[in-house]
Amino acid sequence: MPGSKQKASDNQLIESYHELGSIWLVGKKFNMCGQSVQERLKRLGIPLNCPTFTDEEKQRLKREYLVYRDAGKLNNLAESMGRTKPFICRKAKELDLTNPSHKKVYASVWKYMLEDTARIIFDDFKNSRGTMREYCSRKKYDELGFSRTLQHYFPDEWDVVIESKVPKQTMYRLGRALEYRCRDYFKKRGYFTLRSPRSAGKVDVVAIRAGEILFIQCKRSGSLGVKEWNGILELSISVGAVPLMAMVNPSGRGIDFYELIGRKDGSKRKQPMCAWHPKIDNRVVNEMEQVG
Predict the structure, then answer these.
(1) Cβ(212)–Cβ(223) under 8 Å?
(2) What are the structural domains of the chain?
(3) Average model confidence (pLDDT) for the chain?
(4) How far is CA 38 from CA 56, 111, 165, 279, in A?
(5) What is the pLDDT of residues 185-211, one digit of tens each?
(6) Which of 4, 12, 65, 164 fits a 20 to 30 Å CA distance from 158?
(7) Ramachandran area for residue 28 (φ above 0: left; ψ -120 to 50: alpha; else beta)
(8) Sheet of 205-209, strands arranged across
(9) Which residues are registered as beta bridge partners of 273?
């Protein structure tokens, strides 16, 4: 494209190709796909020998062939390696990767997986039916390696996709949905937000803005047990945060927030809380008006 910056000059590509003798290795050196290197060298009139299939390429094919094949993306893998699809399929057969009884993708493979490869799997998982366990069983993937790798590369998307895989009528899904709504509510108002994974802590959502820290527990029912209530209250006091409870508005639209203003003692008295509303941040309001 006009004005676009090339990752390597023509001379650099030519010199590297003569030195390395491999389109794929040249592409790796300059962070380019093999196909792009091949096309540029052809335009420059450089004769291309049939590049040797290196040991490094063999290891990559062992790691990634089954992943791309199962996702129907072998053309992508071939292009990134500067090869043709028939060529890598022949090599895969030589390496016994096309055997129907191929082994699972184990932890060592997940550990060294590149983000582009992980994206192929993640997109396929998003478009699939059933739970993560069912998906991994069909694909013969190691569940632990699968979840750790995708969470590492796509932390925000992972939560949303896992939520979509849970049966709609379960309480878990309903609770997670409220947490996502709460997180997005504060994000839109200029807060930096964090959501606790599953039920790992006392706080579901943390929202931070200059001079303000909010610890938020999300409860659709609007009711917290004594231990849970006092736990978030004491934690908030210890770090100077505002303890909040988020619940779905009785109308079913929007979220209501309540500040916890005292301890619970186990009696049937009204919960010690009061309605809470976020302070208006004029900078955020101006940005929203400009976008509008």
Answers:
(1) no
(2) 11-163 (no CATH), 181-286 (3.40.1350.10)
(3) 80
(4) 19, 30, 42, 57
(5) 999 999 999 887 655 567 899 999 999
(6) 65
(7) alpha
(8) 192-195, 205-209, 212-218, 242-248, 255-260, 273-275
(9) 260
